[in-house]
Amino acid sequence: MAMEPSRLNQNPGQQGQAVQTAMGGQNAINEAAVQQQPPAGSPTDLVHRKVDAHQFLDTNADLKINVEHLNFFYGAKQALYDVAIPIRERQVTALIGPSGCGKSTFLRTLNRMNDLIPGSRTEGRAVMDGQNIYDKNQDVVLLRQRVGMVFQRPNPFPKSIFENVAYGLHVQGKSGKQVKDTVEESLHDAALWDEVKDRLNSSALGLSGGQQQRLCIARALAVKPDVLLMDEPASALDPIATLKIEELINELVKDYTIVIVTHNMQQASRVSQYTGFFLSGKLIEIGPTVDLFEHPKRKETEDYISGRFG
Ligand SMILES: Nc1ncnc2c1ncn2[C@@H]1O[C@H](COP(=O)(O)OP(=O)(O)O)[C@@H](O)[C@H]1O
Ligand SMILES: [Mg+2]
Prior knowledge:
- The protein has a 6-stranded mixed sheet with strand order 6-7-8-3-9-10, sandwiched between helices.
- The protein contains 14 helices and 10 strands.
- The longest helix is centred in the middle third of the chain and has 14 residues, at 176-189.
- The chain has a domain at 54-152 and 226-305: P-loop containing nucleotide triphosphate hydrolases (Rossmann fold).
- Helix 7 runs parallel beside helix 10, helix 8 crosses helix 10 (209-222) and helix 10 packs parallel to helix 11 (239-252).
- By secondary structure, the protein is α/β, with parallel strands linked by helices.
- The structure holds adenosine-5'-diphosphate and magnesium ion (MG).
- Adenosine-5'-diphosphate binds at residues 74, 77, 79, 97, 99-105, 117.
């Protein structure tokens, strides 16, 4: 069932090359895989296991957020033009496109993070579970709990591992065993528990970059969001840490709706069921990831994925 689009293999981006270099080239990976099964959890094992996001594609998935006629302005400068995107429940939607095309801006419209930017303005609708995110009576604090966010650079608080994950729970007024249990559950769900269970009171800043990013994911999961927004969550990480995040996304999709920005097309194919292509603030095309890469409908998409620009 592995349906890695062939076009992607011809045109490896930074990450693919980095993985190959780190592991001694594609042939070395294949030979090693044939000769012996690496120990579970080892770096080679991670590369060896082929993530197949396509198997989770559900073309009947309900809409979680329906974005229509979305325009966004930084002061006088328009950054998004009449964007329409259906975001499907318990699916990963990847957003790709050249730098500066509006991917991060779009992502931030989904939990109204852009509201914090002075002089900015949003028009249009993003309806989540029947309610427009931009309704006047939308509770923005609640919205940001339901739509969590993970950033490009891991940003743990200068606190203990435990306190990082417990933070949002304390804000919600929770305490005691309820917090302890939820912290443990969230660290499990972020695939970090085994690595930190013996040092929960140590500083989060002592963790590796990849562990810090999984900690930030655990922190986002602790307040029980429905939707997770991830803005290039692995771009500051090494190849092995990147693979761990990608594997984690393939687990999280069973319970969460995920929207991920990535500049890496291989990553989009490894983690997502749907992909949208942005160019100059416009959504050019969106569809099942395999279709978009194998049979793009628009010339601009074809040009971008075949490496003619961007
Ligand atoms: N805070 C801001 N103020 C003004 N312009 C911004 C701001 N953030 C981003 N932009 C501009 O909006 C456009 C889209 O940026 P962005 O959403 O960050 O793109 P991407 O994530 O695809 O690289 C770019 O032209 C960028 O310079
Ligand atoms: Mg960006």
